[in-house]
Amino acid sequence: MKKNIIITSAIIIVILITLVILGNNQNNKQISKEIRLNISKNEYKACIVKAWEVYNSTWENNCLVKGLGENCSLPMVNVNSIEKTFKDNKDNCLEIYKLELNAIK
Predict the structure, then answer these.
(1) pLDDT tens sequence for the chain (105 residues)
(2) What is the DSSP string of 11-51?
(3) Using CA atoms, how far apart are residues 90 and 49, in angstroms rounded to an integer?
(4) Domain residues for 23?
(5) CA dist., res. 40 & res. 10, Å (int)
(6) How many CA atoms lie within 13 A of 86 on its CB side?
(7) How far is CA 4 from CA 23, 37, 47, 96, in A?
């Protein structure tokens, strides 16, 4: 999935550069805007995936450190910390996405 997002983003960037080289008429500007919106959406999705991966790996690492095995039930103090970090990471993804959208408009 991550590889597909990177490849898609790379293709979109190449298209964007091509459009810029071809000229700046109104049609190209609209296409350029749409491409930038798609890039931002892909980056947002990739950010959320990364936040989820961090969440899962942090959970599993806590389980292993405590000697509880995979997919364990952690004490609430650990759960709360992991959940807060996950929420903060997702919130950061959204804030970055909003900033990018504002820059495109």
Answers:
(1) 666 677 777 777 777 676 666 655 667 677 788 888 999 999 999 999 999 999 999 999 999 999 998 889 999 999 999 999 999 999 999 999 999 989 887
(2) HHHHHHHHHHHH---HHHHHHHHHHHHHHHHHHHHHHHHHH
(3) 9
(4) 2-104
(5) 12
(6) 15
(7) 29, 17, 14, 21
Contact 27, 61 (CB under 8 A): no
Q: In this predicted structure, what is the pLDDT of residue 73?
A: 96
H/E run at residue 104: helix 76-104
Q: How many domains does the chain have?
A: 1
DSSP 53: H
- The label of the residue with tokens 């293709």 reads 11
Token pair for 97: 């996405």
Name residue 61's amino acid: N
Name the amino acid, one letter, at 92.
N
Please count the CA atoms within 13 angstroms of the CA of 83 that sit on its side-chain side. 7
